[in-house]
């Protein structure tokens, strides 16, 4: 316990000590029942005479703030005097920091409408039925299996997991990943891989490597909010192109690249977030060739590649990268569990080498203990077992959501049928605003993610993303009925 003692102050030291402890009690930093240090311990730590501490404790006890017991020491009274509670913490001067905020923050992180706070935090509301969450159902987490792998990794690698490490990643995991990525069709060596704390960190690092203020990034107009925020925080200009059932509109990409130079093109070609679209094979070839001709680096976010709900995995863009003009990212966070926060970057070795100091200055290295446990989990075949269980559950939930929508939604509403991933997209009829609909649904205990969360530029159509991964079939049907009622009410009121 640290109390400010000013030896130049004429106030006796015991009274300064008493006032300091009283302030901690009144401010709630020492709650009722909290045990205070012994008089000997506190005198040594503060460099004062023990009698000074004894005198301060005695006065605090007289005022009813603390109580002393022989053999048990001194603690804060369980029931504080009303006067002490009313006094509260002593007032402190407040420094006003608003004027110091950067324009980057104002232009990037302040863009989300305050109304969307009803989406953020819905995961913490036990009474809300959230279709907005991208977190899976916790009941699907392989808790026991991952615990065994954690213990096994500690026995196998010992202190190597507890020591510092390379910003590139845990060496045994780097040795394993080329064979894992080969199942996706990506041919690479360990020198072309880096482990990062989630795709979000990877995007920020790539942006810091390539982007200067004012540089252009092309992306789907409805896109991952984390990517939009990462690029805008670097003062890049983000240009959105439309997305349909066959993915990113490559003709629009060609038009944009014909008018201005773009350093990066960011895309989620497989089970795109939020639309669930899959970029067609023809568009994949055309996009790669267009970006190669224009000198634009493709950044591929292949975050849920294995979650093919109909059993047909799609070849990543990186697997077709003959010219080495592409960076690909993937994540164990989505296919295993989000709390693990382990993802990877695959890029030409010289690019990885240039990313290393950025990673090192960001957070030194990624958690080695989790990397070791993840490696054990994969090498024991538990990831494949877990994915089979998860995919089966997600398939049932997707089908339950589609059936409920077919039965309940108004005829004017359209939606996607996702081949994989975690979400589906709903197009609202003209004149129905997703944010207004969110307010009506939230009042009934149901939350979804409206189009404004994902918009890079102005969006001429209304829509919303529904996640089915975190909600069981019974609650899905209930939630869809609530949304259907809110839609019908909005349509009858002509909500804009």
Walkthrough of the structure:
By secondary structure, the protein is an alpha/beta fold. It folds into 3 domains: 75 residues, Winged helix-like DNA-binding domain superfamily/Winged helix DNA-binding domain (Arc Repressor Mutant, subunit A), CATH 1.10.10; 136 residues, Aspartate Aminotransferase, domain 1, CATH 3.90.1150; 240 residues, Type I PLP-dependent aspartate aminotransferase-like (Major domain) (Aspartate Aminotransferase, domain 2, 3-Layer(aba) Sandwich), CATH 3.40.640.10. Helices cover 42% and strands 13% of the residues. The protein contains 17 helices and 17 strands. Helix 2 packs across helix 3 and helix 15 packs parallel to helix 17. The chain is globular.
Key terms:
single chain; 496 residues; alpha/beta; Arc Repressor Mutant, subunit A; Aspartate Aminotransferase, domain 1; Aspartate Aminotransferase, domain 2; 3 domains; seven-stranded mixed beta sheet; 17 helices; 17 strands; globular
Topology (elements, then pairings):
Elements: H1 13-26, H2 39-46, H3 50-62, E1 66-69, E2 73-76, H4 82-87, H5 103-108, E3 129-130, H6 143-157, H7 171-182, E4 193-196, H8 198-210, E5 216-220, H9 225-232, E6 237-241, E7 243-244, E8 247-248, H10 250-259, E9 264-267, H11 281-294, E10 297-301, E11 326-331, H12 332-335, E12 343-346, H13 349-363, H14 368-379, H15 382-408, E13 414-415, E14 423-427, H16 434-443, E15 446-447, E16 449-450, E17 463-467, H17 473-493
Parallel strand pairs: 3-15, 5-6, 5-9, 9-10, 10-11
Antiparallel strand pairs: 1-2, 4-12, 7-8, 11-12, 13-14, 14-17, 16-17
Helix pairs in contact: 1-3, 2-3, 6-14, 8-9, 8-13, 10-11, 15-17, 16-17
């Amino acid at each position: 316990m640290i109390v400010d003692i000013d030896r130049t102050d004429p106030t006796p030291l015991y009274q300064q000590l008493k006032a300091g402890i009283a302030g901690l009690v009144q401010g709630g930093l020492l709650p009722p029942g909290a045990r205070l240090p012994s008089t000997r311990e506190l005198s040594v730590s503060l460099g004062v005479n023990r009698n000074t501490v004894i005198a301060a404790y005695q006065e605090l006890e007289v005022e009813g703030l603390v109580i002393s017991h022989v053999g048990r020491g001194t603690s804060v009274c369980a029931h504080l005097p009303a006067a002490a509670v009313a006094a509260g913490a002593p007032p402190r001067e407040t420094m006003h920091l608003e004027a110091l905020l950067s324009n980057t923050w104002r232009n990037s992180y302040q863009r989300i409408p305050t109304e969307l706070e009803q989406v953020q935090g819905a995961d913490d509301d036990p009474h809300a039925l959230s279709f907005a969450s991208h977190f899976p159902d916790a009941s699907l987490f392989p808790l026991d299996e991952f615990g065994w792998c954690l213990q096994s990794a500690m026995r196998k690698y010992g202190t190597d997991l507890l020591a510092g490490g390379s910003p590139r990643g845990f060496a045994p995991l780097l040795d394993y990943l080329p064979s894992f990525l080969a199942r996706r069709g990506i041919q690479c060596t360990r020198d072309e891989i880096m482990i990062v704390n989630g795709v979000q960190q990877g995007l920020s690092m790539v942006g810091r490597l390539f982007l200067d203020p004012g540089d252009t990034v092309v992306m789907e107009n409805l896109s991952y909010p984390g990517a939009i925020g990462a690029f805008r925080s670097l003062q890049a200009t983000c240009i959105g192109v439309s997305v349909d059932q066959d993915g990113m509109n490559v003709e629009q990409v060609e038009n944009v690249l014909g008018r201005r130079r773009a350093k990066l093109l960011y895309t989620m070609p497989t089970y795109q977030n939020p639309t669930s679209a899959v970029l067609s094979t023809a568009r994949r070839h055309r996009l790669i060739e267009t970006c190669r001709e224009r000198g634009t680096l493709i950044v591929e976010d292949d975050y849920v590649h294995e979650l093919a709900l109909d059993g047909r995995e799609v070849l990543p863009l990186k697997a077709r990268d003959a010219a080495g003009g592409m960076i690909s990212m993937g994540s164990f966070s989505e296919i295993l569990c989000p709390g693990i926060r382990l993802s990877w970057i695959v890029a030409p070795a010289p690019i990885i080498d240039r990313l290393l100091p950025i990673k090192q200055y960001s957070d030194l290295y990624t958690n080695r203990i989790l990397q070791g446990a993840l490696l054990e989990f994969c090498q024991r075949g538990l990831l494949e077992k877990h994915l089979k269980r998860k995919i089966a559950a997600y398939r049932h939930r997707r089908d339950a959501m589609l059936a409920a929508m077919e039965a309940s939604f108004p005829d004017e509403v359209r939606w996607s049928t996702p081949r994989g991933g975690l979400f589906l997209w709903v197009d609202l009829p003209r004149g129905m605003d997703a944010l207004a609909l969110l307010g009506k649904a939230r009042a009934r205990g149901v939350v979804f993610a409206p189009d404004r969360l994902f918009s890079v530029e102005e969006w001429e159509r209304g829509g919303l993303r529904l996640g089915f991964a975190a909600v069981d079939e019974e609650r899905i049907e209930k939630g869809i009925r609530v949304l259907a009622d809110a839609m019908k009410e909005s349509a009858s009121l002509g909500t804009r």
